[in-house]
Backbone:
């Protein structure tokens, strides 16, 4: 298969995440044209990989603010 494709596990390992985290974000991708490799594992093309990485980047930017607000509430 083309080297531009990655399995869920490969992408999760690259990002230092659990496979389940990547699988969660896959459900926000269109299911039409879902590709599989010769062993039957789902593979993600570059566009799908970028989409997931972008979602994760947005989530990481939001989390520190949320954590800070929770800490502020506890101290009052």
Residues:
């Amino acid at each position: 298969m083309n080297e531009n494709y990655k399995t869920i596990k490969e992408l999760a390992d690259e990002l230092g995440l659990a496979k389940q985290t990547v699988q969660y974000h896959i459900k926000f991708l269109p299911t039409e044209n879902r590709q599989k490799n010769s062993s039957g594992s789902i593979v993600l093309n570059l566009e799908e990989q970028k989409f997931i990485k972008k979602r994760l980047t947005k989530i990481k930017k939001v989390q520190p603010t949320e954590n800070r607000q929770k800490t502020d509430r506890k101290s009052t």
In short: The mean pLDDT is 84.
